[in-house]
């Protein structure tokens, strides 16, 4: 499927990569279909990807794997919230957090309070609010800077 995106221009997204969010995502309940896309030119150095809307090419949320910046991230949420995603296990579970990139890059942060949960087998996703005391704005500039200095681990 061809999607004209704001960030990457026109791209081809394999239908098998499209994830359905039955309830949309927080703040955008009307957007139901997304794909995780990234800059292929960075060849393995993609810490930040984008949750690209299929319905609205202008809408893409920067996202990343929270384990990269907080290895012990293990949020608790009501299992009922994830029932629409089907049977989740270690092999089909993908957890992403949204990234806020302000004009002052030193204030870059991730939202650990509302992760995006995807069942990659079922191509079903949901954004949930965790019950833990996780920050909405967890600063990551220094963490990313250190990762870059250490050779991109």
Describe the fold and architecture:
This protein is mainly beta. It has a single domain, classed as BH3618-like (Roll), CATH 2.30.290. It has one helix and eleven strands; from the N terminus they run βββββββββββα. The strands form two sheets. It has a seven-stranded mixed β-barrel with strand order 3-4-5-6-7-9-10. A hairpin with a 3-residue loop joins β1 and β2. The longest helix has 9 residues. It is globular and about 35 Å long.
CATH superfamily: BH3618-like
Query: How many structural domains?
Result: 1
| Structural class by sheet pairing and helices | mainly beta
CATH architecture: Roll
Helix count, DSSP H or I runs of 4 or more residues:
1
End-to-end gap = 33 Å
Radius of gyration using CA atoms only: 15 Å
What is the class in the CATH system?
Answer: Mainly Beta
Order of helices and strands: EEEEEEEEEEEH
By DSSP, the count of extended strands is 11
CATH fold-type name: BH3618-like
The helix content, as a percent range, equals: under 10%
Strand content: 25-35%
The spatial strand order of the largest sheet comes to 3-4-5-6-7-9-10
Largest sheet: 7 strands, mixed, barrel
Average residue pLDDT: 91
SSE arrangement:
Layout: E1 2-5, E2 9-12, E3 19-21, E4 33-37, E5 49-53, E6 60-64, E7 93-100, E8 109-110, E9 116-119, E10 124-127, E11 138-139, H1 141-149
Parallel strand pairs: 3-10
Antiparallel strand pairs: 1-2, 3-4, 4-5, 5-6, 6-7, 7-8, 7-9, 8-11, 9-10
Sum this structure up briefly.
By secondary structure, the chain is mainly β. Helices cover 6% and strands 30% of the residues.
């Amino acid at each position: 499927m061809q999607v004209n995106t704001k960030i990457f221009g026109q791209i081809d997204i394999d239908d098998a990569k499209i994830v359905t969010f039955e309830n949309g995502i927080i703040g955008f309940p009307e957007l139901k279909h997304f794909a995780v896309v990234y800059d292929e030119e960075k060849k393995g150095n993609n810490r930040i990807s984008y949750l690209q809307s299929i319905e609205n090419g202008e809408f893409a949320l920067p996202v990343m794997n929270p384990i990269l910046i907080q290895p012990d991230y293990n949020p608790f949420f009501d299992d009922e919230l994830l029932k629409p995603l089907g049977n989740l296990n270690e092999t089909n579970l993908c957890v992403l957090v949204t990234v806020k990139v302000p004009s002052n890059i030193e204030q870059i942060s991730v939202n650990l309070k509302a992760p995006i949960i995807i069942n990659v087998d079922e191509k079903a996703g949901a954004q949930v609010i965790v019950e833990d005391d996780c920050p909405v704005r967890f600063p990551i500039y220094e963490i990313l800077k250190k990762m870059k200095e250490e050779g991109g681990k």
